[in-house]
Amino acid sequence: MRPVVAALLLVALGGAARADEQPVAIAQAPGHEAVENNCMACHSLDYPRTNAKFLDRKGWQAEIDKMVKVYGAEIAPADIATIVDYLTKNYGAGE
Question: Whole-model pTM?
């Protein structure tokens, strides 16, 4: 099978598997709207739960800074503080 055809097949099968995925629910706490409105544009909301055991406030701040500076996420400065607070309080390591 040609590499291009194989790649297209994998993409098609992966998309079909995601079609029945249920939305990821995050903690309903102050700041969850900022996370949903800003973070879901680029990735699943599984990310906070997956990384909760590793990231403290400093780690979450670094992650959000990376999303803005490296990946170009357009997050308002006020939302950055809200998101970091939310992630630290609800998904922070040792919190």
Answer: 0.73
